[in-house]
Design goal:
Radius of gyration: 36 Å
Shape: rod-shaped
Strand order of the largest sheet: 2-4-5-7-6
CATH topology of the largest domain: Heat Shock Protein 90
Helix content: 55-70%
Strand content: 5-15%
Largest sheet: 5 strands, mixed
CATH architecture of the largest domain: 2-Layer Sandwich
Oligomer: single chain
Number of helices: 9
Number of strands: 7
Mean pLDDT: 80
Structural class: alpha+beta
Length: about 350
């Protein structure tokens, strides 16, 4: 049903196009021949033009031109024009019975009629090539967009459970210690889960909500770190209506706490600075590192967060971001610049 409707629409557009061509040619000729006489002539002309064009579209192009048989295609196009020219001339010769002068002119101008036919057929080839190229480009872009959106959805489903897994581990550690901070962590976690479940399903979220999420995350970490770590978060600039991809900063926060503060040293810290200049933002995070890292058994999923955020940045802000990571003996820092425009 849908295919039949699409076919009817295509046929209607083609018929309308040829009628429009006939009308334009008629208006150009009607001053000399009269409107109805000129219209009948041009309807004959566009009928033969159409025969050439659709023979070219349906047979010559798919069987020869698209198979790189250029010489054969050119010869057949010339032959088609040679066949159409005398047939149309005969039709007009019979039509102009009462116009002997026009008949004579028709015979004298057969060469010009052939050139016009060949030009129409050749022009249709160019139109077909350009139209097919544009269609393929559009389909390729649609495929790339669908692939990108599928990949983004997949990456997001990895990010959320990954963060939840880490947070529940923190909460579990505190419950084992029977810490008084456990209830507050549950409240913070519920606020964060509400954000993740409802807001993060959107492609973009207000920057203000992402900042509030970071504040909750850091408050949770302050409780977990038992006040021995220096955790700072500064926001510079004006937060207005900027929109950003959700959870784009969280993997960097997780990484800092997992590989920095978790290996407790006396003077450990995480410093975070978010600078906002209109649609341009700069996110900087730096954490201390122990002088000697304890030997750990890393799981296969240990690097999911950073790998995913790199991929998300490539997909969402391919030419609008800059990511600089510095892993030094005593510090680890990340500078991420994004143009949100």
């Amino acid at each position: 049903m849908k295919g039949s409707l699409l076919l009817n629409r295509t046929a209607s557009r083609h018929i309308l196009f040829w009628l429009l061509v006939a009308l334009i040619l008629t208006l150009l000729e009607s001053a000399q021949l009269g409107f109805w006489f000129a219209l009948s002539n041009e309807l004959i002309n566009v009928t033969f033009y159409g025969l050439l064009v659709y023979f070219n579209f349906k047979y010559l192009i798919p069987n020869y031109l698209t198979r790189n048989k250029f010489l054969t295609y050119s010869i057949l196009l010339i032959l088609a024009s040679l066949v159409v020219t005398p047939i149309k001339a005969v039709v007009f010769y019979l039509k102009f019975t009462a116009h002997p002068a026009t008949r004579s002119e028709l015979i004298r101008n057969l060469n010009w009629y052939f050139l016009i036919h060949f030009f129409v057929a050749g022009a249709s080839s160019i139109v077909k090539i350009v139209a097919d190229w544009a269609r393929q480009l559009r389909e390729q872009q649609e495929l790339e967009n669908r692939t990108m959106q599928s990949e983004l959805r997949f990456l997001k489903t990895q990010i959320n459970p990954h963060f939840l897994f880490n947070t529940l581990n923190n909460l579990y550690a505190l419950t084992l210690k029977k810490s008084d901070d456990a209830p507050e962590i549950v409240i913070k976690l519920s606020e964060m889960m509400r954000y993740m479940l409802y807001d993060c399903n959107e492609k973009q979220v207000p920057l203000s909500k992402e900042i509030a999420y970071i504040h909750n995350y850091l408050n949770l970490e302050r409780l977990r770190q038992s006040r021995h770590a220096d955790i700072r978060f500064e926001v510079e600039g004006t937060v207005s209506d900027q929109q950003i991809a959700p959870l784009i900063f969280i993997p960097f926060l997780e990484n800092s706490f997992k590989h920095g503060l978790i290996n407790s040293i006396e003077k450990s810290y995480v410093y975070i600075r978010l600078q906002i200049d209109g649609s341009r933002i700069s996110f900087y995070i730096e954490n201390s590192k122990p002088e000697t890292r304890p030997i750990q058994t890393r799981s296969k999923s240990g690097g999911i967060g950073l790998v995913n955020v790199r991929r998300r940045l490539q997909l969402l802000y391919s030419h609008k971001h800059e990511l600089i990571i510095k892993d030094q003996p005593h510090t680890y820092s990340v500078l991420l610049k994004i143009d949100l425009s």
